[in-house]
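Page 47, continued from p. 46.
Same chain as before, 251 aa.
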Amino acid sequence: METVNKGSKELSQLNVFQFKANEDFTDLYYKLIDTENVIVDVGASNLGQFWTQMSDFAGVESLFDYFVIPTVPNDKEQTDTYKTILFLRQNGIEDDKIKVIFNKVENTVSSDFSVLLNVDFDFDTDMAIKKSELFKELGFLRKTISEIYNPDLDHYRELLRAETDPQAKLALVKSDLANRMASSVKDRLDYIFSTITGKELPKEEPPKAEKKTPPKSVAKATPKKKAAPAAATDKSPVPEESAVSEDDEEL
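Result:
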């Protein structure tokens, strides 16, 4: 919900519906009740008008599980963040439904957000994201973290070696840079998501290297030793192979 900034509608791969502050709220209401998972991103300048429209629908605030407030170290934004907390409280939203995320942390949360941390609210200072150039690179690529992220940090480097087109090479360089920054930022975002929703995200692991079969000539050069014949009176069953796989042994 944005009337000033551009927003993320241009990211065609995302399921984004743009809602203007002066439009009929029923359009948004239909989206809320017809979709299982919805994030309503309300621009700071649109909050008052958004809530005024929403108040025409009794109890509609109960459709939202949480109210997430991202904030940055500037004093004005910290003050506006507390005003937003007070606004939500005054409109019947309990503190446990209000989640504050400390964004663009340069030093520490306690030093960067000293203004905000002095107010009466139970902040979780682990809900923090370090300042990063990652999002600038993603803006250039017009991609999300999940689209560029690969746990194999050499993935784009290998693709780059085989690429000849200059524009494609630049995109791969940007992707490699973004992927290396995303490896740490993604863990932090996953933690924040899990903390807010109570849902653990599955860990992504790099693909295992394929085991190469040795050449036949080498295999023939090392004949296997023949097992000694079992005694005629030994009727014990042949022991089965270990149930532990090679992958488990590696772990």
